[in-house]
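Agenda item 2: flavin-adenine dinucleotide complex prediction
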Amino acid sequence: MRIAVIGAGIVGVATAHELALAGFDVTVFEQRGSVAAEASFAIGGLIGPGHAAPWGSSLTPRASMLMHLPWLWRRWRTMRRPRGAWWSAALHRLASFSRDRMLELARTLDMEFEQNPGCLVLLRTAGDLKRAQPGLAQLREWGVAHELVEAGSARAMEPGLGDTTPLYAALHLPHDGVGNCRQFAHLLKAQTQRQGARFRFDLAVSRLSPGEQPQLRTSDGEQHGFDRIVVCTGAAAAELLAPLKLRLPLVPVYGYAVTAPLRPIEGLPLPGPRAALIDQRHHVSITRLGQRVRVAGIHELGGRPDANALPALRTLYRVLEDWFPGAASLRDAQHWRGARPTLPEALPVLGDSGLPGIWLNLGHGAAGWSLACGAARVLSEQMAGRTPPIETTGLTIERWR
Ligand SMILES: Cc1cc2nc3c(=O)[nH]c(=O)nc-3n(C[C@H](O)[C@H](O)[C@H](O)COP(=O)(O)OP(=O)(O)OC[C@H]3O[C@@H](n4cnc5c(N)ncnc54)[C@H](O)[C@@H]3O)c2cc1C
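Presented output:
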C-alpha cells in the first residue's frame, strides 16, 4: 500500500517510521525544510506517563481565551472529574505504552538523544503539596511509580538545586525522564529513509481529496495519488480538514522555552539539573539536554503567534534562577515559542477519519513527545488491519459521535 504522511513533526516522523517498518511504501510531505521544525522544535523534553498528570496543564488566562469559549466548556466538562474518567485511562494507557515503545526503539536502533532518567516535581510549600493532591491521586489510580520525598532527599538527587529558594518536598517519578525530541526525530528520520521511505521537504499540502485512491495537492501545483493519506499536521490540521467538513475542536496552546549552555566551573561537576524537574507552582519544566539547560512551559490558549513574549519569558528566567542560580550562561540563551496542537480532552485522535482514505494522528497537546511513538505504533497496526497493541477506546474519532 502507498501511504502519504503529511507533516514531519515528531508525530509524523514516528508514524512514517512505524509504517515503513510494517512494510508500507511511505512518502512524507513537510512544508518546512527539515523535521521537527514547528511544535517539536525546542520543547521541554519530558517523557513518561507521570508528567501527563494535572500539574503540567493549567491555562494562563488571556483575553483571547474568550474566542475559545465552546472549547473551554468542552474541556471543563470532560476534565472536571479526572479520577476514573475514560479520558484519563486512555491517556495513561497511551503514555505508558509510548514510553516503552520509545525505549525499545532507542535500544534496538542504538539511539543517543541526550536522554536521562528521572523527574522531580518541586513543591515549594505545604500549599503546593495540597494543590498537588489531585495529581497524586491520579498517579495512584494509574499505578505510576512515584515517591514523595523530603527536601533533603530531593537535593541529594539533584545536587545542583540552589538553597535560597524554599523547598518543602518533592515528588520523585523514577520512570519519567527527559530526551531531546528534535534530535530523536532527526535520528528516526534517517532510520526511516533507510527503510525506503521518502521525505519531500519544502512542500505544503494545500488540498486533500478523499476517495478509494485519495489524492493530495502540493504547493507546487502537483497532484499526487495514494492508497491512504495520514494527516499529522499538528496545530495546522484544522485548516486542512475544514474544507472536507471534518471540524475538529483543535486549538493552538502556545508555550515558550529558554535554552542556555551550562556554565562549567573548573574542577567541579557541570552545574544545573541532572535530568528533569517540574516547578509545580509555575507549571514549568527544567531539563538537562547534554551541556545545556532548558526551561519550558506556559500554556496560552489562543493569542497571536507574534504576541508579546516578555511576561512568559520572565517567568521562565525566574524559575531557572530560583532553582539553579548562576548555572547557565544567560547571555547565550535562545528563546522559542511553539503551539501545542490541543483537543479539549488532552488526548490525540488516531485512526480512520471516516472520510475514505484519510487517516489521522494529531492533537497530542502538551505531551506529544511522550505520546508520539506509541500513537504511531497503534496507527500502523490499525492500518495493517491488525489488533492495536493497546485498547483504543477514547482515542479515535468515535469519541465525538
Ligand atoms: C513550550 C513547549 C513545551 C513542550 N514540552 C513537552 C514535553 O516536555 N514533553 C512532551 O511530551 N511534549 C511537550 N510539548 C508538546 C509537544 O511539543 C507537541 O505535542 C508535539 O511536538 C506535537 O507534535 P506534532 O508532530 O503533532 O506537531 P508539529 O511538531 O507541529 O508537526 C506538524 C508538522 O506538520 C507540518 N505541516 C503543517 N501543515 C502542513 C501542510 N499543509 N503541508 C505540509 N506540512 C504541514 C508542520 O510544518 C510541522 O512540521 C511541548 C510543547 C511546547 C510548545
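Discussion summary: Residues 2-40+183-249+345-400 form a domain with the FAD/NAD(P)-binding domain fold (CATH 3.50.50.60).
Owner for follow-up: CH.
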